[in-house]
Specification:
Elements (H helix, E strand, L loop, with lengths): L16 E7 L2 E8 L4 E6 L2 E3 L1 H10 L6
Antiparallel strand pairs: 1-2, 2-3, 3-4
Length: 65
């Protein structure tokens, strides 16, 4: 199930948490629902896998803000 760009989880309607990080000029965002244990990563508005997010952060460790 994909997490929508909203303030509530599409599955359980509980609040979502978003963690944003600027990496090499792009927003890297983790969206999570603690109730459903749903997590989604996106870069510059496009959904990506966790492995891609980890590579992004690892390759640009000197450029995080």
């Amino acid at each position: 199930m994909a997490v929508q760009d909203a303030d509530r989880c599409p599955a359980c309607k509980k609040d979502l948490v978003r963690v944003k990080m600027l990496v090499d000029g792009n927003n890297l965002v983790m969206t999570s629902c603690a109730n459903c244990d749903i997590r989604q990563w996106s870069r510059a508005g496009e959904q990506i896998d966790l492995s891609e997010a980890l590579v992004e952060v690892g390759e640009h460790s000197g450029r995080r803000r």
